[in-house]
Amino acid sequence: MKIEPGADLRALTAPYGTPKVVRSISQIASSFGGFFIVCVAMYLAYGWFFWLVPALAVVAAGFLVRIFIIQHDCGHGSFFKSRRANSFVGVCCSLVTLAPYASWRRQHAGHHGIWNDLDRRQSGADIYSSCITVAEYEALNRHQRWLYRLGRHPIVSNILLPPFVFILLYRVPFDTAKSWRRERRGVFITDIALVAVVLVLGLLIGFERVAAVQLPIMVIASIIGVWLFSVQHRFEQSYWVRHDEWNFNQAALLGSSHLKLPRPLQWFTGNIGFHHVHHLNPHIPNYRLQECHDANPVMSEAPVLTFWSGLRQGRFALWDEHLRRMVPFRRTSGAA
Predict the structure, then answer these.
(1) Alpha-carbon dihedral sign for residues 83, 84, 86, 91
(2) How does pLDDT run across 306-332, given as a tens digit for each residue?
(3) pTM score, two decimals?
């Protein structure tokens, strides 16, 4: 089925953009409930069965990713009809995910305004949904190419940077304009609340135990979350064009992957693998994304990735304007 540039695909998605309050509340209960239950189990196991702590940390991280998806939906105003309800739940999520709600929401909204447009690429910290072209890379000097490759190396970008961003970098308004006063204030309010929570927990059960439980969860969850975001935007058969060629339908369906995950992983990741549907209509709550996808055959035009093929996408770092696909660094004359 061909994607017609003038087709109103957003109209097809409109019926699914209404949140269902019972399902939203149920998702909050299952996500936060599961997260806190596993955390309590980790604290109890710490003194007696320490070997259980790392295994339980993986499960807790899955729940934390699901909580981040709720925060993501709240940021788009899609989790509840009420703006106040979305903001309240989003702020509550941020105290667990460590991502300040107001600043993250505004920065993420910028991503939805310019994705896959080569002439409107964001600069700064977003290395996960953006890229440079082969020609731009080859125009860099040797030192600049080395720095660029270092930042995009899978070990650096997918393992080392995510915990650094969530645990440390989000503690300051590092990528927040000075004019965003409300968002900058929200960063520091979030920090104060987090310090209070850590102090209370540390005084009650010990700071060493708190660190041994919470840090592994955050490290694992941040790595998973960043990988999801990256693989949904940067993959071999992606779609990047210049602004005069950019088309909303094609950017959404061809520039966002459909990541097919096993059912348990799909549940923990809040259906975010249907990212092409999300880009067509960010107001669809995560629990209705598959419903929208299954009801509209045109959605099958999106590039499909599996968990295993998704793991191989980290090597595709540059956009080749001649081949019209992402390529690894070794495909360039400036690879050395």
Answers:
(1) positive
(2) 999 999 998 898 999 999 999 999 766
(3) 0.92
